[in-house]
Structure formats: C-alpha cells, structure tokens
Design brief:
6 helices; two-stranded antiparallel ribbon; Arc Repressor Mutant, subunit A; mainly alpha; Diphtheria Toxin Repressor, domain 2; about 120 residues; globular; 2 strands; about 70% helix
C-alpha cells in the first residue's frame, strides 16, 4: 500500500467529496483542491493505473477497496491529529494545516500510540 503524499491527498479528497455529493468527477476534485483540471486528469490516470480508483464512461470516480483503505487511513489521521492539536491550544487553522502534513509522515506505530494515549480506539 505504498503511495505518495499527492496520491493520498487525492484519495482523501475523493472520499470526502463522496460523502457530500452523489457522484465525484474530476472537475469536483479540481474545484475542491484549487488545481487545474489537466493536473487532476493526470493524477486520476495514475490512481486508476495503480488500481486505487475506477472511472466510469460518464467520468464518475469511485474508490476501489485499496483506494478506500488508504483514503480512510489518511482521513482518520487528519481528523484525529487536527482535533488533538486544537485541544492542546493550537489555532484551528494552524492545527488543520499541520495535521495535513503530519498525516502523511507519521508511522502507524506512532499514530496508534497517540490514539492509545488520548483514549481513542
């Protein structure tokens, strides 16, 4: 399940958008992230080739099992780390930005230790 930060961000965005919208399209991802549609198209091609998404003829994007697993892992890390930093007194904007960077580099062991320490299973 080796992916880079960019791929993880795209997968997380697809997951978040799928909770808000009935379908997710490249244009939705581009709008959400503030990226050019052409950049998103290249990324979707790479994610499709890696087996993390499927794209219908209509352009609807769906996470595969592996894509969903990665997206949910990154989203959980983002949510927990940002909430934890806010509880520690960090400004919400800074906490969210820091969590966005930390979610990609923290090891599974360290993340599990943080969860255990703050009482989250």
């Amino acid at each position: 399940m080796k992916t880079n930060e960019s791929a993880e961000n795209y997968l997380e965005t697809i997951l978040i958008l799928s909770h808000k919208n009935p379908v997710v399209r490249s244009v939705d991802i581009a709008t959400e992230l503030g990226f050019k549609k052409s950049s998103v198209s290249v990324a979707m091609k790479n994610l499709r080739e890696a087996g993390h998404i499927t794209v219908t003829r209509e352009g609807f994007i769906y996470l595969t099992e592996s894509g969903r697993e990665i997206a949910e892992m990154i989203y959980e890390r983002h949510q927990l780390i940002s909430e934890w930093l806010i509880r520690l007194g960090v400004d919400e904007t800074i906490a969210t930005e820091d969590a966005c960077r930390m979610e990609h580099v923290i090891s599974k062991e360290s993340f599990e230790a943080i969860k255990k320490h703050i009482g989250v299973s």
